[in-house]
Amino acid sequence: VEPLALMRALMDLVHRITVAQVGGEADAPGAEARAELLDWAQRLSAPQLHRLWQLLLKGHEEVREAPDPLAAARMALLRALHAADLP
């Protein structure tokens, strides 16, 4: 997977989950995908989604500018994983 495309896909997913949380409806093809988005929207809080969005946005910028995009993507994802345990 191309690192920048991965970051964009994750950002798109977080955006869809956030919209589902705010609007109560999921924008995804197929009933199963919509149900999964709504499940994530219920399980994650708004602050968690906001923090994840900010981390992915910063990671996207770093991946775009990095001499080694794969290493930058790995570090960005590790940062997001670490942040999940923070208050």
Describe this protein's structure:
- By secondary structure, this protein is mainly alpha-helical.
- Helix content is 79%, strand content 0%.
- The protein has four helices and no strands.
- Helix 1 packs antiparallel against helix 3 (46-65), helix 1 packs parallel to helix 4 and helix 3 packs antiparallel against helix 4.
Quick overview:
The protein is an all-alpha fold and 87 residues long. The protein has four helices and no strands. It has helices at 3-23, 31-43, 46-65, 69-83.
**How many strands, which pairing sense, and closed or not: the largest β-sheet?**
none
Q: Determine Rg (CA atoms, Å).
A: 14 Å
- Give the low-confidence spans: none
User: What is the 3D shape?
Assistant: globular
Q: Give me the secondary-structure category.
A: mainly alpha
Mean pLDDT level:
90
- Helix and strand run: HHHH
Taking the alpha carbons of the first and last residues, their distance comes to: 31 Å
Strand content: under 5%
Task: Kindly state the percentage of residues in helix.
Answer: over 70%
Number of strands: 0
The total count of helices amounts to: 4
From the structure above, extract its key features:
87 residues, mainly alpha, 4 helices
Topology, pairings included?
Elements: H1 3-23, H2 31-43, H3 46-65, H4 69-83
Helix pairs in contact: 1-2, 1-3, 1-4, 3-4
